Amino acid sequence: MAALCLYGEKVKYFTSEWWASGCENESVIDKYREYYLSISSKLPDQLRSFEENHTLHDANVTSISTDLVKNEVAINFKGWDRELNYPVNYEIYFVGVKSFNQTSLQEDSEIGDLGYWEYEALDGDIEMRMLFASGAQFNVVFNDFRFSVSPRQLCMGG
Fold it and tell me: Which is a Pfam family this sequence falls into (predicted)?
């Protein structure tokens, strides 16, 4: 890949409309869970481990870096442990990136918390679609994944 292409599908399961409705239609979760289980064996081991042991729900992006030579994208998040009890930092690396697309509904606005994400198995690749509170969406098409997690201190004071 000489450069990162800009394309991507809209989220299919966890849509802005579903989120705005209060996530009341639980069949959406069931349908995605069924789909995820059908593709999980095609996903990289590190990605499955991340999904089973961590969460990006309510996480905030702190930085994004791209390496066009290595075809990698790294996204850093301030997030929470799986039970949403303890603050953590996540650094997720997308390897073998074919495309990275960011869409925003409002210019110069915060993208807000990451609400929902989903994966789709493509021909030899995976697409991760992330939907943020502002309606912004990130799409990454990649073929491998790795991550790191570290504890984060909450700043208290007034």
Answer: DUF4085
